[in-house]
Amino acid sequence: MKLLHWTVVAICAGPLAAHAFETRLNGFISVGGGMTLSEGQEYVTDPVNFGQYTNELSIKPDTMVAIQTSSQVNDRLSATAQLVGFAGAKQFVKFANADITVDRGFDVNFEWAYVNYELLDSVDLKVGRIRMPVFYYSSSLDLGYSYNWIRPPAEVYNLFTTSLEGMSVDYDISIGDWYGTATGYYGETSGVDPETQSIVEFESILGGIIALERGSLTLRGSYSVDDNVSIVRTFYNPLVAGYVTQEFELPLTFASGSAIYDNGTVMLGSEVTSTKFKNNLNNDESAWYVTGGVRLGSFTPHVTYSSFKQKSTAADTSLVFIPGQAGIKVSDYPQDISAITAGVRWDFDIAAAIKVEYTNRTDNTAEPAILEGLWSPFGDAQVLSVSVDVVF
Predict the structure, then answer these.
(1) At 245, is the pLDDT very low, low, confident or very high (cuts 50, 70, 90)?
(2) What are the structural domain ranges in the chain?
C-alpha cells in the first residue's frame, strides 16, 4: 500500500517523467463537506483562499479540482503547469471604507507554471511560478490524497500565499546512508492577509531546504528571509476621525523543521515553524504539530495535536485603531490556539480515499474587551467534516 500510495502522489506532486515531445495530463479532485457543531462558530480551513465552515453544512471549503500537464521538450528541458480551482475561494475588497467579501468559487489559477532544465545529472533549475517550499507538504499541499488529514493543520499551515514567481535549484545529495535534495530558491509574490485584509508584497524571498531520507525516516529543514516585505492596510484612525491607508515595512524570516517516520504500517510525524519579524512591528509566531496513524488494511485511523502561539515582541508603535477608540498594542494580546484532530482514512480504491474527521480547537487568546470575539481570527470551534480524494 505504501509504495502504491507514494507512486500516485509522485505523479501528481512533481514533474512527470516522459519521453521527448510527449505531454502527460493528470488531475486530482477533493470533494468535502462539513460544519461546525455550535451556532456562531467559524473554522477557516484554508488561509490562502479563505475557505470557511460555519454552523450550516457546506461542501465548498474543502472542495477543489486541479489539472496538471507536463511536457518533455528534450532530454534536459521540460515544462509543467498546474491549474487549480477552489470552490470556497473568496476575495476581500475595500469599497467606501467597508470590507466586502466576493465569492470567487472555482476561479481557476495557475499554481505552477515553470520550465525545468537539467543542468547536470544531479542539478535541476526551475524558472517560473513555483510552489514556495516552506512546509513538508508544500509540493503536494493541494493533493489531499497525499496525506491522512482532510487538510493539513490550519494552526501550522497558515500562510496566505503558497507560490512565488522566481527560480529554484535542486541538487541531489547523499550523506552516508542518507539521500535527498538540497534546494535554493529566490522570487517574489503577493497576497491578501485574510486576518487584516491587508495587501502584502514579498519582493525578494531567498530560501533554502535540505530534505534527507533513510529507510522509513525523512528529515527536512527550511529557512527563508525577505527584507523587502510591504503591507498596505486601510483602517480607522480616531486621530483624524476617518479611514486612512498606510504602508508598513515588515522584513521577516521563516524557518521550519520536520521529521516523518512511515514504514507502511505506522506513521509518526512532527513539524515545527517559526516566524520572526525583524522590526518588531508584529508579534513573532511559532507553530507545531505531532501526528500519528496506523494502517489497518485499507483503513488508517489517525490523531493530531497542533498549536499556534505568538510572543509579545511587537513594539509599542504596533497599534490597531478601531472607531472611536485609541490604539491597541498588538504586543498586549498575543494569540494562543491549539487543536486536536481525530479521523480515519479509507483507501477504497487504487487512487481514491474517503476521510472523516473531527477537530476540536481551543482559542486561549486574551482579547481587548472592545473587540471580544473579533480580535483573534480563530476562536473556539468543533468541526465535523468528510471528504473524497481522487487522483485521475
Answers:
(1) confident
(2) 2-391
- Mapped onto helix, strand or coil, the DSSP state of residue 61 is coil
Q: Which three three-digit cell numbers place residue 145? A: 490524497
Residue 231 CA to residue 222 CA, distance in Å, equals: 24
Contact predicate 375/336, CB 8 Å: no
The residue type of 149 is W
Give the max Cα distance, the chain: 66
Residue keyed to cell 510552489 = 131
Q: Quote the CA–CA distance of 122 and 13 in Å, as a whole number.
A: 19
The length of the chain in residues reads 392
- The 10s digit of each residue's pLDDT in 134-169 is 999 999 999 999 999 999 999 999 888 889 999 999
Q: Who's near 382: CB < 8 A, 6+ residues apart?
A: 36, 37, 38, 41, 358, 359, 360, 361
**What DSSP string describes 245-288?**
EEEEE--EEEEEEEEEEE-SSEEEEEEEEEEEETT-SS--EEEE
Rounded to an integer, what distance in angstroms lies between the CA atom of residue 179 and that of residue 173? Answer: 6
C-alpha–C-alpha distance, residues 49 and 101, integer Å: 12
DSSP state of 331: G
Q: Using H for helix, E for strand and C for coil, what is the string for 63-93?
A: CEEEEEEEEECCCCEEEEEEEEEECCCEEEE
229 near 251, Cβ under 8 Å? Answer: yes
Q: Which three cell numbers stand for residue 2?
A: 505504501
Kindly indicate whether the domain formed by 2-391 is annotated with CATH number 3.40.50.300.
no
Please report, to the nearest 10 degrees, the dihedral formed by the alpha carbons of residues 210, 166, 128, 137 taken in order: 40
